[in-house]
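Course assignment 3, question 2. Fill in each field.
Student: A.L.
Task: Predict the tertiary structure for the chain below.
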Amino acid sequence: MHGGSALRYIPLMHNEVAFRLNGAKVALTDSPPTESLLRWLKRHALTGTKEGCADGDCGACTVAIVEADAAGQRHYRAVNSCLLPLGALSGREVVTVEHLADGADLHPVQRALVEASGSQCGYCTPGFVMSLFAGFYAGELDDATTEGNLCRCTGYAPIRRATRALCGMQPGRDRFAAALQGAPEPCPATALGKYFLPTEIATAIALKRAHPGSRWIAGATDLGVELSRGRADATAWIALDRIDALRRISADEDETVIGAAASLASIERTLGGRIPALDQMLRWFAARQVRNRATFGGNLGTASPIGDLLPVLLALDARIELEGPGGRRMLAAEDYFTGYRETVREEDELIVAVRIPVRGWRTAAYKVAKRQSDDISIVAAVFALGLDDAGRVVHVRLAYGGVAAMPLRARAVEDFLLGRRLDETTLTQAAGLLGEAFTPLSDHRAGADYRRALCANLFLQFVAEHAS
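Answer field:
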């Protein structure tokens, strides 16, 4: 769980691109900006961080990165190093498993796993250690802390015992807690190669115009998979995760505004309980390591027909804010998609924010997948319902993902339900209509008939749970 390293910490020249690794500055000069941190660590003999899937699914490559929240407080966050391009690291701080032990003295997280017999072959253990390390100092330890880490031989009972033992401990004033206090040593956020790190929206838009063929990049949880396999190509990369205006989250009595570059984990922490359907979908969206980097704008930007957050916006009548050289514009979420992975967003526009109105509707989100969490949806469904005092439907939105070339509302069924009471006859007819509303494909995840049945059954489940 700990060991030596052949890495040499190089004195930096003025404005040299660097990041802080295990407490020391490290130059990134001449490093490829699209190389993953995982590959870079392996090249520098920091082999405690393991490679399992290189897709962000197994957690073997987990490291901790220091991140400041909206109040300026610094925290350790677990992330997948296989998805983190070097270009994103300038001025950042990273901790790997080699840094945890103090000589022969194990870190409390490591010791807890040893005492609980939480390791067998040991390959996955460093990833578990780093997930627990980040949760330990952030005060976020629970059974979900290691949901993004797979273990194929030990089983999870001893790992959960170790997690629960740590829940009763306080980090104290050790060197890791002390490192989070105060401001870090200044380190310029200089571009590495053609991986640009603007801090203003206008600068990002200007860079996009100056570099035809460049691509936006934020959390890199989707693009990182392409980059790690050498499949992503662009003349330049323009990162959006340093732009504070894109990371803001605000809420008032009328509306919730989520910046496009806000991480999904920060949305959970900031808005938990305010938008139930969003809470429910984020819970099953992906592993915590992914949610610590993935952004709302990224999920919209990929325009995937199985993007789990997109049905949320459709059901809640959200608006999407875009900005480009021609200025800023607003459009309804239902007008954003035009076809399979096609949207109205222009190539030189970026997604600024999503705006979700506050209503008194009953809402819920459902996701069906082969694996309970951290898996692609077979069908995702989000429902919003308003009833009058007589129990008649006065507002309804039935939004689905995974059933067509883009996320869609079941408009004909919505029209059918308006003005009706949700009695047995109405629900039977609505279920029949939902079974015919879409023409999904059959693939290795599920057949078309199963998807059609889910469309109806998930709505019936929603009514039973929220409108009976």
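Instructor remarks: Residues 55 and 225 are 5 Å apart (CA to CA). The domain at 244-357 is CATH 3.30.465.10 (Uridine Diphospho-n-acetylenolpyruvylglucosamine Reductase; domain 3).
Grade: pending
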